[in-house]
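## retry 2 of 3
previous attempt timed out at serialization; input unchanged, resubmitting
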Amino acid sequence: MKISRNSLLVVVLLVVCLAIFVGRKYYWYPITNKDAGADVIVAFGDSLTYGTGAGRGQDWPSLVSEKCNCRIVNKGVPGDTSSDALARLDRDVLALDPQIVIVGLGGNDILQRTTPETMFGNLRTIIDRVQDSGAMVVLLGLNGFPLASSLGGEYKALARETGSVYVPNILGGILTSAKLRADQVHPNAEGYKIIADRVYDKLEPHL
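## retry succeeded, writing output
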């Protein structure tokens, strides 16, 4: 079977386009406010954002800040559920007029047996309000969290539906390794380094 020169050229172009698409970490869905800038970046979450389990400056927002040479304001509050975070959204996030907000919530909802409908409803409200302010959202998936293995698809769907950058399974392989965790639900310093790499990988194209 002969392949015409034009057909071969089309195939080559498709392969090149696919390589560019994957290599630059582009998404197959549009990202809302993707050109917002990066003057003010806020990490909004719970103890996993705060850095519980590691020393000062070893939390993932600090590590990502070092990697990208940019300032990231850490607004992680240990114990926060999605409802708690929503209640402080104006004060801790929107008042800072951020261009990028990294949202990492859900762990405490899962531990407290909050229904997925309530949790993802709160997350959607947080994302919608942040995007309405003009900022881009980076959503962290917690399907590596205890009791959350079935929620990865819902985090991914929420990211797609809202046009958020998605970082899947930030805890994958961390809490199952004694060398990477401080306790059953928190990484140690080495574990946070892995999270930082995963977040930076998705954030860097938008800086």
